[in-house]
Amino acid sequence: MGKYQILNSPAVKNMPWQDAPAELNNAPVWRYSENPVIGRNPLPGVARIFNSAVVPFEGAFIGVFRGEQTNGIPYIYLGHSKDGIHWDFDKEKIHFVDKNGNDFMPVYAYDPRLVKVEDTYYIIWCGDFYGAAIGIAETKDFKTFTRFENPFLPFNRNAVLFPRKINGNFVMFSRPSDSGHTPFGDVFISESPDLTYWGKHRHVMSKGNEWWESLKIGGGAAPIETSEGWLLFYHGVSGTCNGYVYSVGGAILDIDEPSRVKYRCETFLLTPEEWYEERGFVPNVCFPCATIHDSETGRIALYYGAADSYVGLAFTQLDLIIDYIKEHSVTNTTDTEIGIR
What we know:
There is one protein chain. The chain is mainly β and 341 residues long. It is built from 3 helices and 22 strands. It has helices at residues 275-278, 318-327, 333-336, and strands at 30-31, 46-57, 60-69, 74-81, 88-89, 96-97, 109-117, 120-128, 132-139, 145-147, 156-161, 170-176, 187-192, 199-205, 216-218, 224-226, 229-240, 243-253, 261-264, 286-293, 299-306, 310-317. It has a 5-stranded mixed beta sheet, with no helix packed on it. Strands 15, 16, 17, 18 and 19 form a 5-stranded antiparallel beta sheet that branches. Strand 9 (132-139) and strand 10 form a beta hairpin. It is globular, with a radius of gyration of 18 Å. The mean pLDDT is 97.
């Protein structure tokens, strides 16, 4: 058993994995040697899949994928895989209904997350609610997808649900914004007893002082519950003379008060360096959206969007990444306070 443990999560013995290279120069996160795992034109009518989320399901893997259609409108597609690396996609986008079974399709939907809470899977995405806003739906079987009304007012995006309730409530990250390609943004959390009524809004983290997250930050993969706290992979954005750069950061939040940051890594964990991250429809993007993790070995596979054109896969190990975040942690008052004013 390792130094730290993954809590309240089953073993995933068949998760995708590749051992680390002999030498790691920076953070203990390494890319899959066969990246990208999803390339361009993955199915008819869809030019690119990226910024997508996956979970273990019935001994294999299933995912919700941002499919950029050839008319430029993004929707969410369902994908299936036996190994978490090679994917088959449904040709039709996911069909959402309301609680009465009537059609309830979003105008568009992008950057989905997929999180299991108890016996239900929840899809969270950004869509149009008279401006950029959060959408949410639930499924138990990946055949019927029941959509809720919009949980928050516009403008908001980067919603990520926690994988278990805290003090009896659902808890969700979001990043209030504007309706454009927001040049600002901090991460907040909110609570709900029923996924309809949301409150107890609290601040979690502000943009950082370091160059890689100096413009804005936002939620990434669903946090992993560990013996040290909630392990969070998030994205940080820098503004450069040649546009935005998206990198992957890491933090550890208090297990009972997740608006309080215990450790926050001052260095990025992954930043655009490979051709599929630097070159694409939107260059210089590493955008984390999901992890698959094995509670027995501490192995973690991180799925991330690359250059708004591909899906990449990277790996780390629980002990290595927690120690690295703690050793390189720099926090400030807005991180460590509970987030109420």
